[in-house]
Specification:
Elements: H1 3-18, H2 22-44, H3 49-61
Helix pairs in contact: 1-2
Length: about 60
């Protein structure tokens, strides 16, 4: 299993552990899952953080 998949599962598990029930729990799980996915993609080398920051800076200058 790739680091992306492992990190996504870990993020989802942490989200479930952090909150149990309701829309707030859904939001927390979604947030933890997204963070886990981003960390995993970064560890796999599939996410260019510098490129994302530069892209965001260029959009802010318009």
């Amino acid at each position: 299993m790739s680091a992306t998949a492992i990190s996504l599962v870990a993020g989802l598990a942490l989200g479930f552990a952090a909150a149990f029930g309701g829309f707030g729990a859904f939001t927390i799980v979604l947030l933890f899952g997204a963070v886990g996915l981003l960390v995993g993609r970064w560890l796999d080398g599939e996410l260019d953080v510098v490129g994302l920051v530069r892209s965001a800076q260029r959009k802010g200058r318009r």
